[in-house]
Write a structure and sequence with these properties.
- The protein folds into 2 domains: about 35 residues, no CATH class; about 45 residues, no CATH class.
- The longest helix has 18 residues.
- It is mainly alpha-helical and about 80 residues long.
- The protein is extended, with a radius of gyration of 16 Å.
- It is about 55% helix and about 0% strand.
- The chain has 4 helices and no strands.
Amino acid sequence: MQIDNCIKLLKGASSYYINQNNLIAGKFNWGRGYAVFSVSESQKDKIKEYIKGQKEHHRIKSFSEEYQLFIKKYNMNFPIAEMD
């Protein structure tokens, strides 16, 4: 399955589930678009540790700040917007 089809199915099914089960007040909708990044096998443990400490990490640096730095560091052509 191509990644775009996988994401479409994931977003559709999760939106349906959230709305059918009234998991949030109001109607849930995903934002438009998505991005996919791969991680080298050699960095797997480092990524696991990052994810484990993500809640604490984002008390110091917001997701939006980190995203903007990532986009700039790797010269990526993605929109930079507030995401918190």
